Amino acid sequence: MGLGAGFDAQGRVGPTFVGTVYPFQLDHMGHINIQFYVGLFDQASWGFFAWMGLTADRIRAENVGMAALVQENRFLAELQPGVSLEAWTRVLATSNKTVRYQHDLHRRGGGDPLVGTSVLTAACLDLTRRRARPLPDDIRRRLDDAVHRGGGGQ
What we know:
- This protein has about 150 residues and is of the alpha+beta class.
- The protein has a single domain, classed as Thiol Ester Dehydrase, Chain A.
- The protein is about 25% helix and about 40% strand.
- The protein has helices at about 35-50, 55-60, 135-150; strands at about 5, 15-20, 65-75, 85-95, 100-105, 115-125, 130.
- Strands 1, 2, 3, 4, 5, 6 and 7 form a 7-stranded antiparallel sheet that branches.
- About 30% of the residues are buried.
């Protein structure tokens, strides 16, 4: 079920990621390099997929997966080593084969300021045929419930 099984007051799932910025992730300006910043969002996606029922075991057993189609990131703060972070994820919309969701990345402690967001659209894949397929029914129901809890769209 991922890192968190609950919804917050805004209808977000989480936390879908908890982590810390490490010195090796810095660039020559002394803050986290964009490749690692985006990697934090990627880790949140895997936590979100596990929450929605798409675990590593299920991926292998059913040959079903997810593929990102579109991603828009907003970097709102510089992150230095030692900063502790967590992501919460809101389901914005679903269709037969896709889900649109937003990760909100927060600094832990000190008032929980937002440091970045990532809005993604991902398609469900048949990993044998390498083509989009309908979301499994149980996953679609869970996502639809999350849309309702979070107010949907954006």
